[in-house]
Amino acid sequence: MIAEDVTGSATTTGQPQEEARQREANLRDALGVFTRVRESLVDGSVYCNMGHCYFLRDEYDRALECYETASRRFYNGTNVSTLIHLTRTLYAKANRDQSFATMRQALSYAQRASHLAPTDKSIVYNIAMIEQKAAEMMFALPADKRTLLDLESAVQHAEHAQK
């Protein structure tokens, strides 16, 4: 069982207010439970589930802390699922903040996951989507907010995404 099983779908668009309030209450309760579990069970899955709760609350920085703790402390950076969670969170944060640098971090984690699971086509697809979105994001920035190096990198990633 993971946090997303208890809290429901991450989709909140069009939810009635009562459902949204209930979902938020479920997320709070789940975080409380995982916090207590973390005190007695030192395991990466606890941190991942806490990360899921924070992600669903759009608290991306806290979600990243949890996923990074799980990845570094418990999985030595080699757990593909945790790397994908880091990728997903960084991608969402980059879109929210319109941050090319954060999108590049998402790409880095996705590439690490791909290196560990080279036959996983969903990771390859995710990499292409991140590269495409990063290029779109870079070209949408005003000229004074981007560098030639960033533009060249975005073009290179966009070309790679097309393959």
Automatic annotation (TrEMBL):
Q: Which Gene3D superfamilies match?
A: Tetratricopeptide repeat domain
Q: Where is this region: Disordered?
A: 1-23
Query: What stretches of residues are TPR repeats?
Result: 44-77
Keywords from UniProt, A to Z, are: Repeat, TPR repeat
Q: Does the keyword Repeat apply?
A: yes
InterPro entries xrefs: Ctr9, TPR-like_helical_dom_sf, TPR_rpt
One GO biological-process annotation of the entry reads: regulation of DNA-templated transcription
Q: Which GO terms describe its cellular component?
A: Cdc73/Paf1 complex
**What's a Pfam family in this record?**
TPR_1
Q: Name the SUPFAM superfamilies for this protein.
A: TPR-like
Record flagged with keyword Repeat: yes
Q: Name one GO molecular function term.
A: RNA polymerase II complex binding
Q: What is this protein called?
A: PAFC16201 protein
